[in-house]
């Protein structure tokens, strides 16, 4: 019988990796909480219509990458490819807008996209998401970008860069789409990839984001959206840039930054790293005014971002792992139960430790204590068992002392 292995594109997180992911989650709770964001959990499984309407039917995500299947009643269900649409659905379903004028949420967990697995990009991947609903001011855009950079800095991530663009709004973007489409039609259309030939009609902005070298060359000299936005969008973007300048945060303007999801407008941004190969983006987001309304909710503005946790793990240092305070070495089989009771008493006092499950020689037990890098090795043999004591050995300086086990609450 063949050995059972993981499904292609799905991966285990062994203890070292799991420690990184836990640290990302704990840091998210700490940093985002400082800005007034509250944690929210939404289901992994949603009706397919939510993503088709929320993300956009012409996006690669909806057309090519979703894990979609019928349930027993032949309703189409999809494993979430991103978190924003689900949070919007929850916001509408529970009428949160009627309870508060501004809502700030964050979440983190697994997402699913059927694409070619590669380093930093799996079919089951994980994201940290933040969403702010109800505020249209450019100050909100600036704050969420500053919060994102604060989060990444708190993870110890270095050598990253911020890229910015504006995508205009529903008032000015349609005219730019037509201007861009006219430019693209003047090129050698047959030399574009199949996706871009389709996008020219359905979503020409996505042509600018194509990674195929031939398509990138054909779009050189394309009109830039920043030069074609309305005065309101221009002022909005200028304020965002000004606030980032005042904070000392450096950034680069990228006229080709359009993001892969249809709901973005006005400010859009990405954080990139040069340390993870071709997949340079570790986080990205932007403003999505109109998304809630498109899902039959109130017409409230929104802005948010997502961080790919697998990619963050590639560029962040390994977090410090808590080492046990003690190891209880058991030299006599009759001392196994008292040793376990002693370990529980010390843990109840706030210490962390490991207790041997089998008796052994002093040499082998000390070797186990050394491997765990504990500060103290507690030695419990026949004599100690008879006397109601335990020997505490300081593993740093070798000093040891014998103390009563009863009521022992500290080791120093």
Give the gist of this structure.
This protein has 412 residues and is α+β, with helices and mostly antiparallel strands. The protein is 35% helix and 22% strand.
Describe the structure.
- There is one protein chain.
- By secondary structure, this protein is α+β, with helices and mostly antiparallel strands.
- It has helices at 15-34, 48-55, 60-65, 84-93, 138-154, 173-185, 194-202, 213-218, 231-247, 291-294, 309-315, 336-348, 362-371, 382-387, and strands at residues 38-39, 45-47, 67-70, 76-79, 103-112, 124-133, 160-166, 252-253, 265-273, 281-287, 302-308, 326-330, 353-355, 376-380, 389-394, 400-404.
- The strands form 3 sheets. The protein has an 8-stranded mixed beta sheet. A 5-stranded mixed beta sheet has the order 13-12-14-15-16, sandwiched between helices.
- A hairpin with a 5-residue loop joins β15 and β16 (400-404).
- The longest helix is centred in the N-terminal third of the chain and has 20 residues, at 15-34.
- The relative contact order is 0.12.
